[in-house]
Design a protein that fits this description.
Layout: H1 8-16, H2 25-44, E1 55-59, E2 65-67, H3 68-79, E3 87-92, E4 99-100, E5 110-118, E6 129-137, H4 147-150, E7 159-165, E8 169-174, E9 179-185, E10 190-195, E11 206-208, H5 219-228, E12 241-242, H6 248-258, E13 260-264, E14 275-276, H7 277-290, E15 294-296, E16 313-314, E17 316-319, H8 321-335
Parallel strand pairs: 3-5, 11-12, 11-13
Antiparallel strand pairs: 1-2, 3-4, 5-6, 6-7, 7-8, 8-9, 9-10, 13-17, 14-16, 15-17
Helix pairs in contact: 1-2, 2-3, 5-8
Bound molecules: 1,6-di-O-phosphono-beta-D-fructofuranose (FBP).
The site of 1,6-di-O-phosphono-beta-D-fructofuranose has 12 residues, from strand 5.
């Protein structure tokens, strides 16, 4: 592919060449999601001016306060994907139940699950937030999609990605042929290829976790954090530097580009972890593996976990594989 200007549309179509049986529907769906990113980016960059900051005044299925931007992003994702005939069903972090295709509109062969706005606590303080998504082929035959279509193992994803609204707006995606990053050129209104074939650098540079919650964590996790800090007498190492933005998508993105580990273990507040398996952990786990990294719930590969609930939570360790495996070792040694 010549180094000329490569739009995300052209890149997606080029990737599709790898699948002779492809129908172009997945490409169009990915392109629709890029458009969702542009619409959300337009408003996040003007957030203070368009009265989109602050609380929406209600809580979501997770019992968390919904921000106006959560509701806005959720609506944009639904509106730009429910009427295209490409999807059987959608599921969102912000909605308790499945999002069915409106009556009178065609259903399609794909399933879209998403976190419309990750890092809600960053919205009002102008810190980085993002949209995370994953795409599956439906399991049900035809007609309205089902819960079973959304409760598929991560390994079954056909595509995943995120859009990050930070100093620039970027879209990063994979269809199982490597990980590719695009930067939105506001002047053109186009996502242009800026980070082809991303690989997680080794050795890693950073670790990301919320230290404030150490007292709620297990012995194994406290010892693991000390090991990352180079304070384990039995196995001293050069400390990793610490960074924590408080938005999973932003912390993951930094570690993808610079090498590192993000972890949100289970603790006495969240015995099953805080983050959601289906639309937070799984999509990023697919990207991590495609970039040479790995993701685990502390014991199992995230992508092999069989989901049982739409909004189920999971502990998450994601980044350079040797760091994720080390975390697993500490849990086996001190928590089993
Ligand atoms: P949502 O904002 O989508 O609910 O995501 C949860 C999240 O904000 C993650 O992005 C982030 O990594 C984590 O929670 C931060 O949690 P804490 O404030 O406990 O560190």
């Amino acid at each position: 592919m010549d180094e000329a200007i490569v739009t995300i549309e052209r890149h997606i179509v080029e990737q599709e060449r790898g699948f002779p049986e492809a129908t172009g529907i997945l490409s169009s769906l990915l392109y629709d999601i890029a458009l969702v990113g542009k619409v959300i980016a337009r408003d996040t960059t003007r957030a203070g001016l368009v009265k989109i900051l602050g609380s929406a005044g209600n809580t979501n299925v997770q019992g968390e306060e919904q921000m106006k931007l959560d509701v806005f992003a959720d609506r944009v994702m639904m509106r730009l994907n429910s009427f295209t005939g490409r999807l059987a069903v959608l599921a969102s972090e912000e909605q308790e139940n499945l999002i069915h295709i409106p009556a009178g509109y065609k259903t399609g062969k794909y399933v879209l699950v998403f976190d419309p706005l990750d890092g809600s606590s960053n919205v009002d303080v102008n810190a980085t937030v993002g949209t995370i998504f994953a795409i599956y082929l439906r399991k049900s035959k035809e007609g309205p999609g089902t819960l079973e279509d959304c409760l598929q193992r991560g390994r079954k994803m056909v595509a995943a990605g995120y859009i990050i609204y930070g100093s620039s707006t970027m879209m990063v995606y994979t269809t199982g042929q490597g990980v590719h990053g695009f930067t939105l050129d506001p002047a053109l209104g186009e996502f242009l290829l800026s980070h082809p074939n991303l690989r997680m650098p080794d050795p890693p540079k950073y670790y990301s976790t919320n230290h404030a919650y150490e007292k709620y964590r297990s012995e194994g996790m406290r010892r693991f954090t000390r090991w990352l800090q180079g304070m384990d007498e039995e196995d001293p190492r050069k400390p990793l530097s610490e960074r924590y933005i408080g938005a999973l998508v932003a912390d993951f993105h930094r570690n993808l580009l610079k090498g590192g580990l993000f972890y949100y273990p289970a603790d006495s507040r969240y015995p099953s972890g805080k983050l959601r398996l289906i639309y937070e952990a799984n999509p990023l786990a697919f990207i991590a593996e495609q970039a040479g990294g790995y993701a685990s719930d502390g014991r199992n590969c995230i992508l092999e976990v069989e989901p049982v609930e739409l909004h189920q939570r999971t502990p998450l360790f994601i980044g350079n594989e040797q760091l994720v495996r080390k975390a697993e070792e500490f849990m086996v040694k001190f928590d089993d």
